[in-house]
Design goal:
The chain has 352 residues and is an alpha+beta fold. It contains 14 helices and 16 strands. It folds into 4 domains: 79 residues, Beta-grasp domain (Ubiquitin-like (UB roll), Roll), CATH 3.10.20; 99 residues, no CATH class; 63 residues, no CATH class; 75 residues, Alpha-Beta Plaits (2-Layer Sandwich). Strands 8-10-9-11 form a 4-stranded mixed β-sheet, with no helix packed on it. The chain has a 4-stranded antiparallel β-sheet with strand order 14-15-13-16, with helices on one face. Strands 4-3-5 form a 3-stranded antiparallel β-sheet. A hairpin with a 5-residue loop joins strand 9 and strand 10. Helix 2 crosses helix 5.
Length: 352
């Protein structure tokens, strides 16, 4: 009877959460399997693991009786491709694959929107005037898209050209312009005069404060916001407005409610302007890892302004790099390339 019990349970390991709950996993499972067993978001935001109170690498094989505590961060960029090789459970593998599938779709939506907006500007229109609900519905019906995101995703993966989309989007506008040239000129004059009296503050930071002119605006060095981040302004004493990311822990609305001010990125932020970003890359401490990281950043034609690295007794390497990027999409492309490097576990944007 005892030998039967051994056979039944030999393919499983039983580990504990910090609260004492028992988690059953296949033998050979790693902390990432444990994380996805707890919750998808725990898995997607994992950056490390403590086993029996000691930091262990993410490919550590769990043993019966281990107490597992996952380290997570809301600033994590999600799973690495290497996790698919490390994990044992189909649940973890499926969740990781779902993350990348959604991420690729999200990237195509962003890329497609940028391509359509660029085509609109090239045609002599503004995206705000063209991408109205009425015009978008015309395109959705014409090309059998179920949503605006589907339309942008199709453009992003080159299923349809941006020119085809913009031709349909601007069809009514162009027809109206042909019929009412004089009215169009009048509207243009009114818009031009309205823009001349509208007060906006624009600085080298690429950030503006509506209705306020001649105000000093600077980007906060604690969270280093870049175009595409959600931002908030904080009115300082004698140093103008300090711009932070909305998720920056150094600006809490309840503590600074009277000092917060609405700010936004300029629509025409120059691609030539660079913004400082700090990244932390963790991975297995192997020979050549740092060189691989620097090579990927160099191949993306991104300037590196600082780099440092260290490793611990558990063969976990931590590499800190400071780079100059143009906008949030530029940053995402670099992060994706870094996550594809062999033995890289996580890539995280840091806040001081």
């Amino acid at each position: 009877m005892e030998s039967l019990k051994v056979d039944l349970f030999s393919d499983m390991v039983y580990v504990f959460t910090p609260k004492g709950d028992v988690i059953e996993l296949p033998r050979g499972s790693v902390p990432i399997d444990f994380a996805y067993k707890i919750h998808t978001e725990v898995g997607n935001h994992s950056i490390g693991a403590k086993i029996n109170g000691k930091m262990e690498p993410l490919d550590y094989q769990l043993k019966n009786g281990d107490i597992v505590e996952m380290m997570t961060s809301k600033h994590s960029y999600g799973p690495s491709q290497d996790w698919l090789k490390m994990t044992q459970t189909s649940q973890a593998k499926n969740k990781i694959k779902q993350f990348f599938k959604k991420q690729r779709r999200d990237e195509n939506v962003i890329k497609g929107r940028e391509m359509v907006e660029a085509e609109i500007r090239q045609a002599g229109f503004t995206p705000k005037d063209v991408l109205t609900e009425e015009n978008v519905v015309i395109v959705l019906e014409k090309f059998n898209f179920s949503s605006e995101e589907d339309m942008f995703a199709a453009v992003g993966y080159h299923g349809i050209t941006p020119a085809q989309i913009v031709t349909r989007l601007t069809e009514k506008i162009r027809a109206q312009q042909e019929k009412n040239k004089n009215i169009a000129e009048k509207i243009e004059e009114v818009n031009a005069s309205g823009q001349s009296i509208r007060k906006k503050s624009k600085r080298d930071s690429g950030v503006r404060v509506e209705g306020v002119d001649n105000m000093l605006i600077r980007l906060s060095k604690c969270c280093n916001p870049v175009p595409g981040d959600e931002i908030i302004g904080y009115i300082t004493k004698g140093r103008g407005v300090s711009v932070h990311r909305k998720d920056c822990p150094n600006v809490q609305p309840k503590d600074a409610e009277n000092r917060l001010i609405f700010v936004e990125w300029e629509n025409d932020v120059s691609e030539s302007k660079s913004y400082h970003v700090d990244l932390e890359i963790s991975g297995f401490d192997r020979r050549g890892l740092l060189n691989d990281v620097l090579q990927v950043i160099n191949e993306s034609k991104t300037n590196i302004i600082a780099v440092s690295g260290k490793s611990d007794r558990n063969k976990i390497a931590l590499i800190h790099v400071s780079i100059l990027i143009h906008n949030i999409n530029h940053l995402r492309r670099i992060v994706e390339r870094l996550k594809q490097i062999q033995d890289v576990y996580t890539v995280e944007r840091t806040i001081q």
